[in-house]
Hints:
The protein has 5 helices and no strands. The protein has helices at 2-6, 8-21, 24-27, 32-59, 64-85.
Amino acid sequence: xxxxxxxxxxxxLVHWPVMSVLTSDRxxxxxxxxxxxxxxxxxxxxxxxxxxxxxxxxxxxxxPVATLVAGGTAGAVLTVLSMAAL
Length: 86
């Protein structure tokens, strides 16, 4: 359970996209096998997200100004991309 708690935020982020992509129509499974596929895929992706993104970002040491600049830049880029997608 401790391990699940450690990756819980990553799991929270990935469970819905996994459920949206791996529908029962696409997988050909239904019921308990379908639920097992969703849980397994969500756990694997959440673990990868935690190890490859979350952990390195938590260990990153930057100045507050660099953090604000990076956050502002990321927000601006995401805003432009979301507007372009419309």
